[in-house]
């Protein structure tokens, strides 16, 4: 007599445990549960640049770019001409012992 009632209670207990586990797992996946809303509002900026400061920074960047371009062009010209005092290797010449290709 106790066997039939015990099986039914055990079935209900297992079903309740599975249901509770499902609720816990689904609650962990719900949006906004423990995550801060980072992208809702950006942090306010402290100071912004004045138009004069923007122009000054832009001019400084342009001057640096022009200086680096001139420096790179000078180095490229120096390597194309080779180091000072260097001579080009002698040109290869064909000798009579080298057979001509057909």
Gyration radius from CA atoms, angstroms:
41 Å
By secondary-structure content and strand pairing, the structural class works out as: mainly alpha
- Low-confidence segments, ≥5 residues, pLDDT <50? none
Strand content: under 5%
Q: Sheet with the most strands?
A: none
Give the fraction of residues assigned to helices.
55-70%
Mean pLDDT: 76
How many beta-strand runs? 0
- The backbone outline, from C-alpha atoms, is elongated
Provide a count of the helices: 2
What are the secondary-structure elements, in order, as H or E? HH
- The separation of the N and C termini measures 107 Å
Provide the descriptors you would attach to this structure in a database record.
elongated; single chain; mainly alpha; 2 helices; 102 residues
What report would you give on this structure?
This protein is an all-alpha fold and 102 residues long. Helices cover 57% and strands 0% of the residues. The chain has two helices and no strands. The radius of gyration is 41 Å and the shape is elongated.
Brief digest:
The protein is mainly α. The protein is 57% helix and 0% strand.
Q: What's the topology here?
A:
Elements (H helix, E strand, L loop, with lengths): L1 H27 L22 H31 L21
């Amino acid at each position: 007599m106790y066997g039939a009632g015990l099986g039914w209670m055990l079935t209900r207990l297992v079903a309740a445990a599975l249901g509770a586990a499902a609720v816990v797992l689904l609650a962990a996946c719900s949006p906004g549960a423990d995550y801060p809303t980072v992208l809702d509002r950006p942090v306010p900026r402290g100071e912004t640049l004045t138009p004069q400061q923007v122009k000054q920074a832009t001019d400084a960047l342009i001057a640096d770019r022009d200086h680096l371009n001139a420096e790179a062009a000078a180095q490229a010209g120096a390597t194309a001409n080779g180091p000072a005092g260097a001579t080009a290797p002698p040109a290869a010449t064909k000798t009579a012992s080298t057979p001509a290709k057909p």
